[in-house]
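Changelog-adjacent note: as of this version, every example in the card shows the full chain rather than a window. The one below runs 51 residues end to end.
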Amino acid sequence: VKSLVESHGAKWSEALNRENTLVAVNQTMVDYQHFIHAGDEVAFFPPVTGG
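Full-length structure tokens:
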């Protein structure tokens, strides 16, 4: 996951930083060290606020 984010440049790396963004691969929560494979579904969950 980490290399996927980094491959998209600094804006992605800043926006999807590990401190406050969750990530799921194939609908399972994982950490940024998780390996992804062709065909995997990757979802990022940035912090949100509601009211």
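Structural remarks: Residues 2-45 form one domain.
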